[in-house]
Amino acid sequence: ETGVTQSPTHLIKTRGQQVTLRCSSQSGHNTVSWYQQALGQGPQFIFQYYREEENGRGNFPPRFSGLQFPNYSSELNVNALELDDSALYLCASSVGQGFTDTQYFGPGTRLTVL
Amino acid sequence: DAKTTQPTSMDCAEGRAANLPCNHSTISGNEYVYWYRQIHSQGPQYIIHGLKNNETNEMASLIITEDRKSSTLILPHATLRDTAVYYCIVRVGVSGNTPLVFGKGTRLSVIA
């Protein structure tokens, strides 16, 4: 167990809807990174939050947005859902200091878009 | 794109050592090699990382060649619970909390 929790576990939405996914980081960690994992692929980096500010972004459109709160928990919001957004969404927390900082993953949220 | 090359799949007999290779011929001097594994539909689990020296922890050993162009993850006594996809990752960037760039990994099947 990494101490990183995510909610909900599973979610079903329809195309065009909006969704919010949540992540609680491990105690003592101030950085949260979000990844999308399509079926049969490795996780792909969406963005990272460090001390409540976006600190890097992968190749994802603006309809993917996020927040980090003072307690370092985080939300991932996706607007105008598309069928291809169906995936496992993973968050990872880390201490956020230094190059060798290790990221620890939560169990993920499985999003299905119909 | 991922900077590593791994075999698509491997089998290992239960109780034997599992040796998972990874090529990273373009690795830079300040880039680390990380290994994660992912058991079906769970979040990736951190295993080990290293720069140039061999590393060992309670889960595995990491052997990095002297030229740093390849490495091997060793699970000394594989069990059925080690069946997973194993990702070798070279962490890009020179400082800060850089993201992990995953490839497709190696699917390890431990057979009884």
Report on this model:
The complex is a heterodimer of chains A (114) and B (112). Chain A is mainly beta. Helices cover 0% and strands 50% of the residues of chain A. Chain A is built from no helices and eleven strands. Chain A has strands spanning 5-7, 10-13, 19-24, 31-37, 44-50, 53-57, 64-68, 74-78, 87-94, 104-105, 109-113. In chain A, strands 2, 4, 5, 6, 9, 10 and 11 form a seven-stranded mixed β-sheet that branches. The N and C termini of chain A lie far apart (32 Å). The relative contact order of chain A is 0.34. Chain B is mainly β and 112 residues long. Chain B has no helices and nine strands. Chain B has strands spanning 9-13, 18-23, 33-38, 45-50, 55-56, 61-64, 70-75, 84-90, 106-111. In chain B, the strands form two sheets. Chain B has a five-stranded mixed β-sheet, with no helix packed on it. Chain B is globular and about 40 Å long. The model of chain B has no long low-confidence stretch (mean pLDDT 92). At the A-B interface, strand 4, strand 5, strand 9 and strand 10 of A face strand 4 of B.
Helix content of chain B: under 10%
Q: Which value, in Å, is the CA radius of gyration of chain A?
A: 13 Å
One letter per element, helices H and strands E, the order of chain B comes to EEEEEEEEE
Question: What's the average pLDDT of chain A?
Answer: 92
Report a brief summary of the structure:
The complex is a heterodimer of chains A (114) and B (112). Chain A has 114 residues and is an all-beta fold.
What's the SSE blueprint?
The complex is a heterodimer of chains A (114) and B (112).
Chain A: E1 5-7, E2 10-13, E3 19-24, E4 31-37, E5 44-50, E6 53-57, E7 64-68, E8 74-78, E9 87-94, E10 104-105, E11 109-113
Parallel strand pairs in A: 2-11
Antiparallel strand pairs in A: 1-3, 3-8, 4-5, 4-9, 5-6, 7-8, 9-10, 9-11
Chain B: E1 9-13, E2 18-23, E3 33-38, E4 45-50, E5 55-56, E6 61-64, E7 70-75, E8 84-90, E9 106-111
Parallel strand pairs in B: 1-9
Antiparallel strand pairs in B: 2-7, 3-4, 3-8, 5-6, 6-7, 8-9
